[in-house]
Amino acid sequence: MKKELIDRYGRKLDYLRLSVTDRCNFRCYYCMPEEGMDFVQRKELLSYEELDYLTGVFVRLGVRKIRITGGEPFVRNGIMDFITTLAKNQGLREITLTSNGSITDSQIQQLYQLGIRKINISLDALDKQRFFEITRRDKFDEVFQCILTLLKKGFSVKLNCVVDGKKNIADIVPFVQLTENHPLSVRFLEEMPFNGTGKFEVPEWNHLALYDYIAAHFPTIQKVLDEKNSTSVNYQIPGYQGTFGIIPAFSRTFCGTCNRIRLSATGELRTCLYGPPVANLRDVLRSGASEESLVSEILDAVAKKEKDGFKAEELNAKTPKKSMSFLGG
């Protein structure tokens, strides 16, 4: 019988979020502190050969979609060679990427030639000063130009905006207006407790507050069909080219249909972003374990996946939460 990643609630996990690095050229406040980040040593990272082997194992277990994340994936040397290798795996239905917009024109061209068409860009402000305050980097023009280049080339682009009531509320309306003349999807996310500082306040701007705010400014707002296993609840303003969605990332209303599994750049396997690592596949692999043993480790971890993010968080309650750059989102 074919082995598949199915948890105890009958959910089939066919989507792997794969972090290739914990490093990033930005310092977004909600992801990591401005200084003092203790990045992992190169020897602790999964090599590209190990990543290639492990992704092959996951595909043989039924994974059909892989999202490359970080940190910022494009700061790791050799990333395009790895993506090229990954794209040759015939068992994969889709490869997508999440970036902060640090993608060169040459890399965009290579991605297009590989058949990759979907890219998420993290962008939390359309105002240059607020962008700088959030990212601690003066890179807005480069990021926005990257977005325009991707759209012109024919990529499906989603913009992920983490909403903070003290920093970027003034950007919400401009983001929705951006969808009038651009065929992209903006997704507003509740802030999550993965900033690497150990300090976090429950967001007042939850998914309900976000919807009410947007609806007050755009009374013709219409619901659109959500994709299967979507984490966002999606909307459109009639006549606009693009759409926008709201992701209850902290409220976690979408856990019941979760089909995700996560592998960090150091080999930590997580069945939930909020939960603890359930195995370290790097250590298993480097111990000389057979593929059969590796598969057994993965299947055992998946079988114990918690019902939702709140249950998973209870298992992690006494452990300081790592930065989002390490977890990979």
Number of strands: 12
Question: How many domain units?
Answer: 1
Question: Could you please say which CATH topology applies here?
Answer: TIM Barrel
In the CATH scheme, the class would be Alpha Beta
Task: Please tally the helical runs, counting DSSP H or I stretches of 4 or more residues.
Answer: 11
Order of SSEs, N→C?
EHEHEHEHHEHEHEEEEEEHHHH
Mean of all residue-level pLDDT scores: 92
Radius of gyration: 19 Å
Largest sheet, strands/sense/barrel = 12 strands, mixed
| Strand order in space, largest sheet | 7-8-9-6-5-4-3-2-1-10-11-12
Shape from CA axes?
globular
Q: Which segments are poorly predicted (pLDDT under 50) over 5 or more consecutive residues?
A: none
CATH architect. name: Alpha-Beta Barrel
**CATH superfamily caption:** Aldolase class I
Strand content: 15-25%
Could you say which structural class the secondary elements and strand pairing correspond to? alpha/beta
